[in-house]
């Protein structure tokens, strides 16, 4: 599994790139980084790039649900960028777990996803 993340736009945008299968250990890095950015900047916008993403291991899925519940109101917008129909469906599945506006973009529209996130 590979999870890479970086902050952009002065810390208001968290870019998360995932490939392979998410493992429980991946959340040990992601959660503290998210918490730090939220404490410094308030509500965040997330670009979740799922190019090459193949889902979660069971323990990671539980960590993802816990993360969603704990950070329900701390995310303003999420752009989910992917390559497959199940990834588009995942953007619909995630909506009840957040008050964030969620929008799916095909990989070819990565630039549009970024522009949507940074727009007011």
Please compute the radius of gyration using only Cα atoms: 13 Å
Under CATH at level 1, the class stands as Alpha Beta
Number of domains: 1
Q: What does the largest sheet look like?
A: 6 strands, mixed
Average predicted confidence as pLDDT? 81
Low-confidence stretches: none
**Helix percent band:** 40-55%
Q: Based on the structure, what is the oligomeric state of the protein chains?
A: single chain
| CATH-defined superfamily | SpoIIaa-like domains
CATH architecture: 3-Layer(aba) Sandwich
How many beta-strand runs?
6
Task: List the secondary-structure elements in sequence, H or E.
Answer: EEHEEHEHEH
Apparent shape: globular
Q: How far is the first residue's CA from the last residue's CA?
A: 33 Å
In DSSP terms, counting alpha (H) and pi (I) runs of 4 or more, how many helices? 4
For this structure, the CATH topology is Rossmann fold
Q: Which percent band covers the strand fraction?
A: 25-35%
Which secondary-structure class do the elements indicate?
A: alpha/beta
Pfam families: SpoIIAA-like
InterPro entries: SpoIIAA-like (IPR021866), SpoIIAA-like_sf (IPR038396), STAS_dom_sf (IPR036513)
Organism: Telmatocola sphagniphila
Protein name: STAS/SEC14 domain-containing protein
Overall description:
The protein is α/β, with parallel strands linked by helices and 120 residues long. The protein has one domain: SpoIIaa-like domains (Rossmann fold, 3-Layer(aba) Sandwich), CATH 3.40.50.10600. 40% of the residues lie in helices and 34% in strands. The chain is built from 4 helices and 6 strands, in the order E-E-H-E-E-H-E-H-E-H. Strands 1, 2, 3, 4, 5 and 6 form a 6-stranded mixed beta sheet that branches. The longest helix is centred in the N-terminal third of the chain and has 16 residues, at 26-41. It is globular. The protein starts with a strand and ends with a helix.
